[in-house]
Amino acid sequence: MKTIHKIFVLVFILANISLFAQTTIPALINSNVTWSLSQSPYLVASNVLIGANAHVTIEPGVVIRFGAGTEMLVRGEIL
Predict the structure, then answer these.
(1) Nearest alpha carbon to residue 36 among 5, 4, 64, 71
(2) Dihedral (C-alpha) 8, 14, 15, 21: value to the nearest 10 degrees?
(3) In the 8-state DSSP scheme, what is residue 75?
(4) Is 1 helix (H, G, I), strand (E, B) or coil?
(5) Which residues pair with 3 in a beta bridge?
(6) DSSP string over 5-69
(7) Does pTM top 0.85 for this prediction?
(8) What pLDDT, in 10s, does the model give residues 32-46?
């Protein structure tokens, strides 16, 4: 019975970790990147600049959350 309880607790903890997982976007993006659904949601915690030669590919279904007062300036491309 203790083994089943331990397994249940472990599964519960892992499930909650994945629910709150997020990827923080860096303030400067100067290279080509892909924002994948598996790493979603993405958090814009501070202002972000996408440089002139950078291409950001966003997979369908990706969630991007902006913190209060943050913005993204795009000089490159979002695909």
Answers:
(1) 64
(2) 170
(3) S
(4) coil
(5) none
(6) HHHHHHHHHHHHHHHH--EEPPSEE-S-EEE-GGGPPEEE-S-EEE-TT-EEEE-TT--EEE-TT
(7) no
(8) 999 999 999 999 999
